[in-house]
Amino acid sequence: MDKGNCVYQAGPIEITLGYRPLMADQGVCVQVYANVESKETEILRFDCFDQDPHYHYGPENRNVRLHLDKVTCGTPFAWTMHNLRHNLPAMIRRAGYESVAAAVEAHPVSSAVLDEIEAKGRELAVTERRTVTHKFERMLEKDVYRVGNICIGLEYRLLPQMNSQGLAIHVLSNIADQVVELLAFDCFDNGPHYHYGPRNQDIRIYWDTVTSGDPLAWTLDQFKIGNLRRMIERAGYPTVANDLDESLLQSMLPEIERRAWELVAENKAAQAAPTAMRGQQKTKEQLMQEIEALREQIAALAS
Q1: What is the pLDDT of residues 36-66, one digit of tens each?
Q2: What residue spans define the domains of the chain?
Q3: What is the pLDDT of residue 274?
Q4: Residue 3, phi then psi, degrees to nearest 5
Q5: 18, 29, 114, 177: least buried by Cβ within 10 Å?
Q6: What is the pLDDT of residue 278?
Q7: How far apart (Å, rounded) are the C-alpha atoms in residues 204 and 194?
Q8: Where are the alpha helices (DSSP H) in the chain?
Q9: DSSP 19-51
């Protein structure tokens, strides 16, 4: 585990801050380091993530990992700072570093340093948060289907920088007079994945096409079996999920599915056309032979 790049000297220990943007989670990471037997050692680590907040006792020693219940502990970063202020020696001792714990008891971390750490951590939580804003550059108005309180938009995306292409399905809703993307399913040829809350938590999950099969078929199947409501809720929009008109969605799915596959076929054909045309182009030698043959035909007619 890399050391955080914001480093604070706190008496006998160092406290570092960083931001960890994982594919399926993200959040501020707080680490406590100390010199143990002439080696810089990670004593404690607090991963203040959105989905699975947890902390480690002795990552380089026992590595006891405990999970936080956000219902009872509140905000993971606030919980972490509370324990750095009030329980730090005891936590270091449980991690297996008695001498470091005794040193911290003798020389406690100052309130001023902890205040600075807390302010910086809260700043990182805002400024480093990873979100995705899709521009819908190739999504046509006719390919946006209003389904009660949501819209489902179909867009065929070309991604030459990734050597990929494929259909994207955007699930949208109007929230506070803004169009917000709740879910995005990027059914690409290479690196297919989907997002829970691209503008919110941006939980990004990559398909294993060996087990899921075709990403577009998998996505449409989730809509058919009634999983869209739960997916919207997981994305962080429970009110939108609660008001989803499932009967209307199911009645519109046949047309949405038909158009989705039609867009794929049209764009695949369009992308293949230039290659096919290049294959049909004649060489200079072939053209010269045809010209010579025409000359001979003309000469024969003239005689």
Answers
A1: 999 999 999 999 999 999 999 999 999 999 9
A2: 6-127, 141-277
A3: 61
A4: -80, 140
A5: 177
A6: 46
A7: 6
A8: 70-73, 76-86, 88-94, 98-106, 111-127, 209-212, 215-224, 228-234, 238-242, 246-280, 284-302
A9: EEE-SS-EEEEEEEEEEETTEEEEEEEEEEESS
